[in-house]
Each structure stands twice: as C-alpha cells, then as structure tokens.
Specification:
heterodimer, A: mainly beta, six-stranded mixed sheet, about 0% helix, globular, B: mainly beta, eight-stranded mixed sheet, four-stranded antiparallel sheet, 12 strands
Chain lengths: ~110, ~120
C-alpha cells in the first residue's frame, strides 16, 4: 500500500545530541501519529496530532502537524541510549477509513 | 490505559499446520482491530481490518482463506494462519482502536507482536 516518505532512513548520533526526523506525503492527512518500535516488540505510540499546525510535546519529544497537512516532524532533544529504536510516522486520511499509512521508519542509534 | 496484548509472543510450527494468534484489548473496547505483518528491517504491512461482529476486510494480495480473522467480541480478535509454510514466517502485530469510559480513541494501539517461524 501507499507509504509516507520518511527521512532519514537511519541516524547515528552521540548521547546528548538532538534528533529530527520527518514525514512527507503528496496526500492530505487529518491525523499524524508517531510510534517507536524496539526490537521484537510492537510499536508504542509517542505522540498523536490532530490539527494542522499543532505542536505537541511528550517529555523530550516534540512533534508538529504541518500547516499543509502533508507533513509532520518529530524532534528528540538531549538523546539518551534508551532512545535507540525504529521510529515510524503514520497518517490517517478521511478517505481511508481507519486504515493507517506508515512511513518506512527511521533507525536511530545513540552512542554513549 | 489502552493496552493491547497478544498471545503467543512467539511460535514455531511445522509446515502444513495451522497457528492461531490472539489479540486482546485489556482496558478498552476495540470496535476495530487490525492485523499487520512485518518483515525484518521493513515497515508494517496491513493485512486486514476487522470490525466486531462483521467479516474482516482484507488488503489486496492477502489471501482471506489462508489468514482467517475472527473478531467475535469487543476485546478479542484472532488470526489463524492455515496450512502455514516457511514463507509465512514473519512478525505479526495486531492493533486496536475503540473507546473506553473516557471517550473514543482515534489512535491505534499496538500489541507486542507474535514471532511466527514455520519450519
């Protein structure tokens, strides 16, 4: 099925650095979700965004719903080793019912 | 709140046998459940969507007779992989959305996944 364009595909950073990743699409979404997946586990919801322009924080994580409704970004500040994992964006469109469209994931590695 | 469990967490079976995976919403009522499969280093691929009490809607290319989905109650959905073959080996993940006493969830909450290995 259709996927969102998520970048970067992978990141290698030092502990304490800030991280930014984003998702873009040619389609409009009315909900954006950011998940983190650890190896051998299911995705865990980090942040949910419902309105264009919305900026939401969850601890060291901040995500924004783009004004055009075609993109979203996730920032992680002051990264720590447990931030390691795969981060997925997911979008929900009115025309897709309740089916999510997923990005391809960003593999984050944090070096202590 | 919004906890989803899956059982088993992993299973190894012989080729030709059937395997059932359960997905439960523990603290909310799941009006809709979703089944995904995920190959290593790839994103989640939606297999089917099921609404409580009705037949599942399968994505294009997913064989409904091979992947049987039952969503008999608001807290339980099952996926049965029939006549499993090695190419069915994958990580199967369910998710659910619905409502609790505090309102409805627009988000999907995922289970921890089931690792299926077919020998």
């Amino acid at each position: 099925g259709q996927q969102l364009n998520q970048s970067p595909q992978s990141m290698f950073i030092q502990e304490g650095e800030d991280v930014s990743m984003n998702c873009t699409s040619s389609s409009i979404f009315n909900t954006w979700l950011w998940y983190k997946q650890d190896p051998g586990e299911g995705p865990v919801l980090l942040i949910a965004l419902y309105k264009a322009g919305e900026l939401t924080s969850n601890g060291r994580l901040t995500a924004q719903f783009g004004i055009t409704r075609k993109d979203s970004f996730l920032n992680i500040s002051a990264s720590i080793p447990s931030d390691v994992g795969i981060y997925f964006c997911a979008g929900l469109r009115e025309t897709s019912g309740s089916r999510l469209t997923f990005g391809e994931g960003t593999q984050l590695t944090v070096n202590p | 709140g919004a906890v989803v469990s899956q059982h088993p967490s992993w299973v190894i079976c012989k080729s030709g046998t059937s395997v059932k995976i359960e997905c439960r919403s523990l603290d909310f009522q799941a009006t809709t459940m979703f089944w995904y499969r995920q190959f290593p280093k790839q994103s989640l691929m939606l297999m089917a969507t099921s609404n409580e009490g009705s037949k599942a809607t399968y994505e294009q290319g997913v064989e409904k007779d091979k992947f049987l989905i039952n969503h008999a109650s608001l807290t339980l959905s099952t996926l049965t992989v029939t006549s499993a073959h090695p190419e069915d080996s994958s990580f199967y993940i369910c998710s659910a959305r619905g409502f609790s006493g505090r309102g409805s969830y627009n988000e999907q909450f995922f289970g921890p996944g089931t690792r299926l290995t077919v020998l």
